[in-house]
């Protein structure tokens, strides 16, 4: 279908990205209402959906497939959001550079095993509470998005949606552990840069009210409330793993709907078994996940023509080396959802290797030799790591931003955030290119 789709059909997608970037600057009060975001999404996505139906069965099948991916995506993010929102980390943590760095490091370490969304929702609120007496907090949230919401999830298919989709397409579960050198390099550099940055910021505000011992609230012992939600969190991990391994289905991935139903049941179980008082302590609200749901349904629909064109013309892009796949995947993952972008370039690489795109084709692709492993490593790193380049590169980015703003943290605009990523992340990715992909 990609050869038949008009390139003009990508305009609504570009306009949606422009709206996400521009409206917070032009009219922030109007844009903060999710109903208004929904109006923009509807105006831009409904014509695309109608246009796709003109391609008959092929267009309807593409819309259905994208709709199913959206539901799976939203249920995964939503279940982790709700379950993590029922876990309250109590205690008095001082927002010093050392404590903040330890929290970021811990979140990065667990992100590959509970998902970047789970780790983000579990730790963003304790981090914000620890820094409630500080005035310079924006950079801390930005680095949190870089590390906990993105690069921390590089080690397992449970960490980030692109790797999970690769797992469903045949990549062995343990294969992503080979990416530990890239994971260690990028996160170690980020942690060192953050610590030095936060040291400077902390010294500049150490004399302000709220940072003296007299103004601090009474000390509270560290502890965890909502322990039962850890079981629900492990349940989500178990469902994702079992689905991908095809447990109970002869090794084949579960039919669509089973995994989604189980995630929904775990979400509902957590919500109704957790007291409202506990969620109140966590300042839990559905605003962030509603914002993600509204914006990403528009992204999933309007990006269909762009992905179709890319998929059909992938062999004409001239991609042959690891660094080219790393940057091509990364750049598109910054503005498209990184999960379908991963699949697009993985399918392109498999097609060039004459591997048919049927069943667990990525397992067959890897069996073609060491070059396939190197190319898939580059695609994986590009999708996961460069999803941090913009707010829309990965689902948790928007959620963390929304939670921070609910806590009166002034977050940078769309382009302001890209200034951070351009200054901090792009030099790291250039270094990674020379170390790992050339």
TrEMBL record:
<keyword id="KW-1133">Transmembrane helix</keyword>
<feature type="transmembrane region" description="Helical">
    <location>
        <begin position="414"/>
        <end position="437"/>
    </location>
</feature>
<feature type="transmembrane region" description="Helical">
    <location>
        <begin position="70"/>
        <end position="89"/>
    </location>
</feature>
<keyword id="KW-0472">Membrane</keyword>
<feature type="transmembrane region" description="Helical">
    <location>
        <begin position="136"/>
        <end position="159"/>
    </location>
</feature>
<feature type="transmembrane region" description="Helical">
    <location>
        <begin position="179"/>
        <end position="197"/>
    </location>
</feature>
<dbReference type="InterPro" id="IPR031566">
    <property type="entry name" value="CitMHS_2"/>
</dbReference>
<dbReference type="Pfam" id="PF16980">
    <property type="entry name" value="CitMHS_2"/>
</dbReference>
<feature type="transmembrane region" description="Helical">
    <location>
        <begin position="38"/>
        <end position="58"/>
    </location>
</feature>
<feature type="transmembrane region" description="Helical">
    <location>
        <begin position="256"/>
        <end position="274"/>
    </location>
</feature>
<feature type="transmembrane region" description="Helical">
    <location>
        <begin position="372"/>
        <end position="393"/>
    </location>
</feature>
<protein>
    <submittedName>
        <fullName>Sodium:proton antiporter</fullName>
    </submittedName>
</protein>
<keyword id="KW-0812">Transmembrane</keyword>
<feature type="transmembrane region" description="Helical">
    <location>
        <begin position="226"/>
        <end position="244"/>
    </location>
</feature>
<feature type="transmembrane region" description="Helical">
    <location>
        <begin position="286"/>
        <end position="310"/>
    </location>
</feature>
<feature type="transmembrane region" description="Helical">
    <location>
        <begin position="101"/>
        <end position="124"/>
    </location>
</feature>
